[in-house]
Amino acid sequence: MKISLYLSALLLIISSCSKDQSTVHENTAPDSVAKSTEKFPARAKDMTIYEVNIRQHTPEGTFNAFQKDLPRLKDLGVDILWIMPIQPIGQTGRKGSLGSYYSIRDYKSVNPEFGNLEDFKSLVDEAHKQGFVVILDWVPNHTSWDNVWLTEHPEYYMTDSAAAEVGKTLGEPKSYYKKKGIDDLVYEADWDDIALLNHYNPATRAAMIDAMKFWITDTEIDGFRTDHAGHEIPMFFWDEATAALNPLKDLFWLAEWDEPRMQIHFHATYDWGLLSLTSEVAHGKATAESIHDHIQKDEAQFGSNAFRLNMINNHDENSWKGTVKERYGEGEKAFAVFSFIAYGTPMLYSGQEVGLDKRLKFFEKDSIPMDDPGHYFEFYKKLNTLKAAHPALWNGAFGAMPKKLDDKNPNVFSFIRSKGDDTIIGLINMTGRPQQIKLSGLMKKSYQDLLNNATIDISQLTLAPWQYYVLGKP
Q1: Are 174 and 166 in contact (CB under 8 A)?
Q2: What integer pLDDT is reported at residue 347 of this predicted model?
Q3: Which end of the chain is more exposed for a tag (fewer CB within 10 A), N or C?
Q4: What average pLDDT does the segment 13-23 reach?
Q5: Spatial distance between the Cα atoms of 163 and 93, rounded to a whole number of angstroms
């Protein structure tokens, strides 16, 4: 009798689970079904991040206009849509006519420039149906000067006196603060359109977590890219935030910060050092050998499980430091290949997939041309396909760390990544001059060029300027 009751209960559970799963996946893209049953970070093991600049992505600059572009991005092969801040922008001290996305006036509202809350919900819903993960750019460090909190809860903000107390606690002075002229509230020297929040106040942390919760529960986003994640924000804020928010939904966390401590709560962190270094190599100020050294040191600090963001472009680089072509010149595609196959988690910025070659205005409307005369879309699509198909190239612990090959040439970035039966060899000439390499220690001489479908003898090669190979089993 007990066995019969047990079997009946078991069958009921199985039936219920099957029904629930069919309901959950009813509107999801077929290739997203398997991934949706996994949890982060495993769910993101082979994913590419795409930064969405809603204002500039389309001529309209709206959620509805961007939503129409989802099928194209799906075809491109990107997976995680990181959407830059969408909240209303402050008027007080506004920079330019439209202001900075990162000067937030109301954490629980939508910038009317982009549409309304229902438009955003529709975008998230459609993105989910097409298999995308949607993360929202979050600004926990500061607000605009006309944020609703400033009048209702001035105690949420950092003051000279509060900064002095924090300095005593941490043993470091806060000398870079400046007064704004409103009591003793402070801001950072280069960004006078924002007021600094005080996360040493428990009430500030509680209000911020409540605002983050709103976007998870009301719009069903899948996580956050957090701006200035470690800048004047104590780690115990992230202790509290993740403890409160992770039970609501399986979330993906990306930190704009480059310290190992952030990996306690974040799946992915910025590798700012690698971004700067690759630009230096492109300009002949460093060599490929220095990139090998960086990766070795990075693994020692972060371990091999961390998702380290590897990019050659983002909104800051494009607007303030120059276009990809300005920073990498003729080596643009060589370093793009490096960002996808050599190390870390790859990221693309709006327009990069069509060869964006202008510095987008940050405080004005400045639409991205989408004509793609250089056929970049197919180039990046091929890289996304290659990454997803080869476990050796997957992110963090799910892939393989690159091991330096003995090529005797400091100007060529040569490596091997192996995971199970999958082995990938990468050879990238990081100069504008021909480079000869002679590899030793490999069992085979012939490999398949995975980007061009040709057989390559790698025992001795001459690489043309900026030439690259991604090689696998023949």
Answers
A1: yes
A2: 98
A3: N
A4: 35
A5: 22
Q: What is the mean pLDDT of residues 408-426?
A: 96
Q: Which residue has the tokens 């230096």?
A: 280
Cβ contact 422:392 at 8 Å = yes
Contacts of 469 (CB under 8 A, 6+ apart): 425, 426, 427, 428, 449, 451, 456, 458, 461, 463
Tokens of 456: 């390559």
Q: How confident is the model at residue 449 (pLDDT cuts 50, 70, 90)?
A: very high
Q: Does the pLDDT value for residue 344 go beyond 90?
A: yes
Q: Which of 38, 13, 56 is nearest to 368 (CA)?
A: 56
Task: Quick: pLDDT tens for 277-303.
Answer: 999 999 999 999 999 999 999 999 999
3-state secondary structure of 279: helix
Percentage of the chain beyond pLDDT 70 is: 87
**Predicted local distance difference test score (pLDDT) of residue 336:** 98
- Contact yes or no for 203/161 (Cβ under 8 A): no
Cβ proximity of 216 and 245 under 8 Å: yes
Joined together, the tokens standing for residue 107 give 């954490």
Q: Indicate whether 453 pLDDT > 90.
A: no
- DSSP code at position 469: E
How far apart, in whole angstroms, are the C-alpha atoms of residue 225 and residue 70?
A: 20
For residue 350, give the nearest of 335, 334, 370 by alpha carbon: 370
Which spans in 220-287 are helix H? 235-245, 272-282
Rounded Cα distance between 144 and 151, Å, is 12
Among 184-188, 310-314, 373-377, the least confident range: 184-188
Q: How many residues does the chain have?
A: 474
Measuring CA to CA, how many Å separate 38 from each of 44, 45, 221, 310, 349?
A: 9, 10, 17, 24, 26
* Angle, CA 394 vertex, CA 388 and CA 398 arms, to 5°: 130
- Whether pTM > 0.85 for this model: the answer is yes
What 3 state SS string does 5-52 have?
HHHHHHHHHHHHHHHHHHHHCCCCCHHHHHHHCCCCCHHHCCCCEEEE
Percent helix, percent strand, percent coil in the chain, to nearest 5: 40, 20, 40
What value, to the nearest 5°, has the Cα angle with vertex 349 and ends 82 and 334?
Answer: 135
